[in-house]
Amino acid sequence: MTQMILIVEDEPKLAEVLRDYLRHAGFKTFWIVSGSAAVPWVQEHAPALILLDLMLPERNGLEICRDIRTFSSVPIIMITARIEEIDRLQGLESGADDYICKPFSPREMVARVRAVLRRTEVASSFPPVGLTLDQSRYQATLNGYDLDLTAVEFNLLKFLSSKTGQVCTRQQLMDSIYPDERIVADRTIDSHIKKLRKKIALGSSDAEFIHSVYGVGYKFERRDGSVGLSGREVEVP
Asked: Is this prediction's pTM over 0.70?
């Protein structure tokens, strides 16, 4: 089945270029100009992925992304002319799966679309092969090995593994393990991650699963050929 990509973009020339390249790559496309029309359209249809401009008339991309996340996990790539770190963090924390900064190559855009769709397919097989999570007992096993996690570590692993391939900010991780909105320092999350990595390594010494994303947070993704417990820092996709 041909996958549908929704383009929410108010620049006609850019939208047309995106449509042409996506169609040439084998995707169907639908184009929406107005920010206010995006959420109702997504509620009535089932796009495989959304290319969402940050600056739109009537509603901005962050608001739209947050609204969509209340009812759908459809992959969203934010298109933005802003490159400051705070804007990247806001985009990710609103629920975006990736972002791409203008100006960009249409070929790069197609490559990112394909990469996010591949990650989504992997994440849909949650939990990952070899990992078993028992919520009733807060027990996690990897390849049959009991990881012996604390409740906080269990919830952290559950959240990260459910977002396989996606970048999770520290704020998202804090919200997932401390729903009472208590104030927690970044180093607390880093400490939990360090302990979790060590326990995971005992169940799988030949692979790493949790990776640092410089300046943002962490990503859960199996990478064979482990070289240690520290986790390599990677660029945000």
From this structure: no
